[in-house]
Amino acid sequence: MTPARRMAITLLCAIALLAPSLACGFAAEQRERIAPMAAACDGAGSASAPAYVPGHGPHPIMALGRVRPDGPWTQSLGRLTTRTPAGGRVESTQLVLCEDPPREVELGECAFDTVLRVGLVRVPGVRAEGPSFPRVQVEQRARIVALASGATIAEQVFRGADPPACDRSITGEPSASDFRGGGVSSAAIDAWAEGYALDVAR
User: Fold this and answer.
1) Which pLDDT score, from 0 to 100, does residue 35 have?
2) Which of 160, 154, 151 is nearest to 192 (CA)?
3) CA of residue 46 relative to chain centroid, distance
4) Which bin fits 52, alpha (ψ -120 to 50), beta or left (φ > 0)?
5) Would you give the distance in Å from CA 99 to the centre of its chain?
6) How many Å apart are CA 172 and CA 99, to the nearest integer?
7) Cα 156 from chain centroid (whole Å)
8) CA distance 51 to 62
9) Number of domains in the chain
10) Residue of 113, 110, 111 lying closest to 179 (CA atoms)
11) Is the pLDDT assigned to residue 18 strictly greater than 50?
12) pLDDT exceeding 90 applies to what percent of the chain?
């Protein structure tokens, strides 16, 4: 083995050993950095944050979300970064967008009959009780919170596309996914939040 190859392997082994530690360190630093914003989502203000005064924008905003109702708040990377960037610092952040996890709401049930057959031959007029599937719509609650006070400035429940009707045309056997509506658009939530960040909310 050449000295250069030996050096390369040693370097790779060192990186492999250090990577988990670096990842854990970054995650801990990230949690600490957004802790005041996460606390604001839970109603606690931060004395280090500038006051939110409506009409005197733009108001730098950061987006946080969580995957479980009782889970930790994490930064929603890539959201609200174009026109009202908060920069990730408490001292430069006025508002926080707090997004709860999506939840499914049942809007009734679609019940089906099963046609009885003898072999491949249909038995006229004879049916048995078949499967049933709930019509499910996805909704998600979002809030705009003032970081300095922890007070909720605005709140709205966003809904995804309506689930298909029970009499929709289906090829093959129906399944639960045939009656589930679409997810909530993150672009719609961002546009709503930017209305407050830019003082153009209606």
Assistant:
1) 93
2) 154
3) 24
4) beta
5) 6
6) 38
7) 14
8) 15
9) 1
10) 110
11) no
12) 51
For 19-48, b where at least 16 C-beta lie within 10 A, e where not — what string? eeeeeeeeeeeeeeebebbbbbbeeebbee
pLDDT 10s digits, 154-195? 999 999 999 999 888 777 788 899 899 999 999 999 999 999
Per cent of the chain over pLDDT 70 is 74
Range of the domain at 93: 1-202
C-alpha radius of gyration, the chain, whole number: 26
pLDDT band at residue 44, thresholds of 50, 70 and 90?
Answer: very high
Beta bridge partner(s), residue 144: 97, 154
DSSP string, 43-89: T---TTSPPP-TTS----EEEEE-SSTTSPPEE-TTSS-SSSB-TT-
Q: Tokens 């957004």 sit at which residue?
A: 34
With 0-12 CB in 10 A as exposed, 13-18 as middle and 19+ as buried, what is 188? middle
Calpha distance 91→179 (Å, rounded): 46
- pLDDT tens column, 57-112: 889 999 999 999 999 999 987 787 666 666 678 998 999 999 999 999 999 998 88
